[in-house]
């Protein structure tokens, strides 16, 4: 009887915990839809950056070309300042509003275009910004009054610059960890490249083909680099649809506020030289 009792009871005792544990295992191994979304988002966002490789360095090339198109053209404003002064018979301070608006908008619009990058619209922002840049340059080449130039080169080009610059810098940083400083520096050097190329174009072509066609040649250079940008630009992180348009919470950090204030006063006098030093 003892043997029978043991054989009849022990399997029951042995099976009950298994039957009780099985639903728990199933519940643990079958996450809810919300858990799946969180896991997918976490996996995508927390994945280690490649810190190199072809795709990562192509984004550095993208950053270099974006800086070339935006900052490179912008810091070459010394090409345009003396021409506009003589063409429109206006004082230097009035003409400098064109370059000043470009500088203002590249930073101001970056406040909002950075959110477009977070939301997954990086390539859309690139397409819109690059189109505005090219449009602005060719409209500048046919402008015949100060206000037309102000609208084309000051506002339209400033908008294009602001739309593409901040998202591109943000995208580059997602591909690197230990090499991030080198990568972003290499991308930012595009401003210097443009600051060399565009004045050289002006120096060589202005005496031969005049202002309008010289500007169109610059527009062609920007258009070619824009095509390369659209071919190789690619994001790595999953889109983050939710989020504020402006991260006001950042201004609650004293270190960030001090840094922003310091950069404001540092950059305040910087652009005087770019506007008033003749590059031709």
Automatic annotation (TrEMBL):
This protein's GO cellular component annotations are: membrane
Where is region (Disordered) located? Answer: 1-49
Basic and acidic residues: bias regions? 13-25
The record's subcellular locations are:
Membrane
Q: Name one Pfam family in it.
A: MFS_1
Q: Which UniProt keywords apply?
A: Glycoprotein, Membrane, Transmembrane, Transmembrane helix
Which family is annotated? Belongs to the major facilitator superfamily. Monocarboxylate porter (TC 2.A.1.13) family.
The record's section on PANTHER family has: MAJOR FACILITATOR SUPERFAMILY (MFS) PROFILE DOMAIN-CONTAINING PROTEIN-RELATED, MONOCARBOXYLATE TRANSPORTER
- Name of the protein in question: Major facilitator superfamily (MFS) profile domain-containing protein
Q: Which organism is it from?
A: Fusarium oxysporum f. sp. radicis-cucumerinum
């Amino acid at each position: 009887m003892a043997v029978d009792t043991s054989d009849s009871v022990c399997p029951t005792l042995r099976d009950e915990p298994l039957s009780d544990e099985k639903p728990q295992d199933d519940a643990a191994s079958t996450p809810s839809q919300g858990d799946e979304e969180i896991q997918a988002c976490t996996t995508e966002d927390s994945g280690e950056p490649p810190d190199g490789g072809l795709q990562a360095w192509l984004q550095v090339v993208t950053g270099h070309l974006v800086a070339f198109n935006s900052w490179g053209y912008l810091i070459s404003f010394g090409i345009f300042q003396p021409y506009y002064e003589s063409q429109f018979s206006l004082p230097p301070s009035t003409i400098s509003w064109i370059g000043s608006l470009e500088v203002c908008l590249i930073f101001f619009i970056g406040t909002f275009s950075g959110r477009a990058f977070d939301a997954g619209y990086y390539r859309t922002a690139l397409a819109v910004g690059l189109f505005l840049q090219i449009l602005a340059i060719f409209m500048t080449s046919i402008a015949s009054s100060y206000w037309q130039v102000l609208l084309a080169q000051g506002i339209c080009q400033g908008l294009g610059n602001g739309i593409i610059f901040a998202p591109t810098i943000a995208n580059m940083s997602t591909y690197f960890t230990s090499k991030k400083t080198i990568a972003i520096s290499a991308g930012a050097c595009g401003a210097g490249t443009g600051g060399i190329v565009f004045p050289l174009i002006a120096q060589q072509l202005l005496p031969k083909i005049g202002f309008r066609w010289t500007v169109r040649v610059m527009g062609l250079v920007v258009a070619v680099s824009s095509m390369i940008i659209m071919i190789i630009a690619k994001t790595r992180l999953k889109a983050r649809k939710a989020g504020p348009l402006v991260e006001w919470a950042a201004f609650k950090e004293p270190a960030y506020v001090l840094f922003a204030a310091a950069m404001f006063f540092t950059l305040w006098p910087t652009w005087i030289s770019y506007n008033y030093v003749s590059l031709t």
